[in-house]
Amino acid sequence: MDPFLSLLHSFSSSLSDNELSSLKFLCRGKIGKRKLESVRSGGGGGELFSILLEQQLIASDKVSFLEDLLESIKREDLVSQLKQFVEEGEVNAPDDQPDVHEKRLLKAAIEVICENVGREWKMLMRKLGISEVQMDRIVAANPFNLQEQVVQSLRTWQKWKGKDAKVTDLIKALRGCNMNLVADRVEQKLNTGTT
Q1: Backbone phi and psi for residue 144, each to the nearest 5 degrees, phi listed first
Q2: 62 DSSP β-pair partners
Q3: Using one digit for the tens of pLDDT, what is the confidence trace for 113-139?
Q4: Which of 21, 25, 26, 152 is in the most buried spot, having the most CB atoms within 10 Å?
């Protein structure tokens, strides 16, 4: 099954009738009145997404219109899921990914960082080159979950760097922020072997 269609299906089942009405209203400039009237409340989100797909307003590699719609109806949770879908490389070319060994090392390093970096995570992200806007979005999507903020920001960095994402960069950034204990723990975990 197409992962993008599965995602849209899960979105459609979580939309309330009011949210669906808002989405229909927001699509007025893009979709004809008759087509919009055919979208019924009660699971009609799927119909609306089908029309958007047909008219090529959205696709698995073209999600900005959908993101704008979801932001307009204040569904940050769905925006966050959409961004995660894009970040996890459903859209990205596989040749822009780190090799399997580096991926495994990164996963282990990210686990250690998430367990040990607390409220100072933004300082680390700045060192890694993540913008304030990206960090604000991550905080808005996960307002009360510090660990999830760290995870999402590291995923954003990894996605941005693609195949250039290296554990050595994470360690260097940690040391640059005087988070030597965390850097030591990352190195220790990598040296004890991650299989």
Answers
A1: -115, 20
A2: 59
A3: 989 998 889 999 999 998 888 889 889
A4: 152
pLDDT in tens, 142-170: 888 898 899 889 988 888 888 888 899 99
CA distance linking residue 8 with residue 24, whole number of Å: 15
What domains can be seen in the chain, in order of their start residue? 3-90 (1.10.533.10), 97-191 (1.10.533.10)
Report field, pTM of the whole predicted structure over 0.85: no
Long-range contacts of 160-169 (CB under 8 A, 24+ apart): 160/129, 160/130, 162/92, 162/96, 162/97, 162/98, 163/95, 163/96, 163/97, 163/98, 163/99, 165/98, 165/102, 165/106, 166/98, 166/102, 166/106, 167/102, 167/105, 167/106, 167/109, 169/128
Tokens 């925006």 — which residue? 79
